[in-house]
Design brief:
Helix content is 83%, strand content 0%. By secondary structure, it is an all-alpha fold. It has a single domain, classed as ABC transporter involved in vitamin B12 uptake, BtuC, CATH 1.10.3470.10.
């Protein structure tokens, strides 16, 4: 069949294998974390952190250091700052995310504007450059993704408790602040890894769409998490196949596939609910 020939041809290129391996792992991480982020109304934190990552990558290009070496610590610190602002500041939730997001984007643009002789591709940073991933990038991304997945699985019960009811979790002895900080740390690492393939403007879709799609067909937390992981991974792979076959931008194509799946699930849920009345 044509589809299998396309997949076979796609996997014959080394850069495609690197892109798919990293993309599947990052999509899995984002889908797992996305359920908690959506339920805690932090769905857009990915956008805020990615814009800070954009500024960090621009600065890394100016001072000639590895982008991940600078962007990971900067985004991690920003994630903890957002968490602290939400707890102790009058600026909370979406307002805090919007403040961080616009500030990060502005800093990146200003640095690019005042720097001469710098060769940065604004499109690659904003929309991703997954095909330019090196072997070193791939190994680092695999290692960090594995850490995120292992930590999520090991502390699943605690993250579940913190997601649904912080007060009850605190009453049962769960160290709520520790696990909220863990969630922020895992999200920050995932966002930085995902920026390379999705770009600063599209990375939030990896945490948002799979979780929302899963919530259309599942009700229990565990089933939502599993469905979100499956949807995220499948949508990424299908998006990459369409991107390769039709010569489309990979990041935007993955988002497009996620949008189609979300729309189908929403329509099916609506029809099912109407039929039960």
């Amino acid at each position: 069949m044509q589809i299998f020939e396309t997949i076979g041809e796609m996997l014959s290129f080394t850069f495609m294998i690197r892109a798919i391996v990293v993309g599947l792992l990052v999509s899995l991480c984002a889908a797992l974390l996305g359920v908690s982020l959506v339920l805690k109304r932090y769905a857009m934190i990915g956008t805020g952190l990615s814009n800070v990552g954009f500024a960090a990558m621009v600065i890394a290009g100016v001072i000639d250091v590895a982008p991940l070496a600078l962007s990971i610590p900067v985004v991690v610190v920003t994630a903890f700052l957002l968490l602290r602002m939400n707890e102790s500041s009058k600026i909370k939730g979406d307002s805090a995310v919007a403040l961080i997001s616009t500030s990060g984007l502005a800093v990146g643009v200003i640095v690019m504007g005042v720097t001469t002789g710098i060769t940065l591709s604004i499109c690659n940073i904003l929309f991703g450059s997954i095909f330019a991933m090196t072997a070193a990038d791939m190994y680092l991304s695999i290692a960090l993704s594995a850490v995120v997945i292992i930590i999520f699985v090991l502390f699943y019960k605690q993250l579940y408790a913190v997601t649904y009811d912080e007060s009850f979790a605190r009453a049962t002895g769960t160290k709520v602040e520790v696990y909220k900080s863990m969630l922020a740390l895992l999200t920050a690492v995932t966002v930085v890894l995902g920026m390379r393939m999705m770009g600063a403007l599209l990375i939030a879709s990896l945490t948002l769409f799979p979780a929302l799609s899963a919530m259309r067909i599942c009700k229990r937390f565990l089933s939502v998490v599993i469905a979100s992981a499956v949807i995220g991974v499948v949508c990424f792979f299908v998006g990459m196949v369409f991107s390769f076959a039709l010569d489309l931008p990979p990041g935007a194509t993955v988002v497009g596939v996620n949008l189609v799946v979300f729309t189908i699930f929403s329509v099916v849920t609506f029809v099912r609910q109407r039929g039960l009345r």
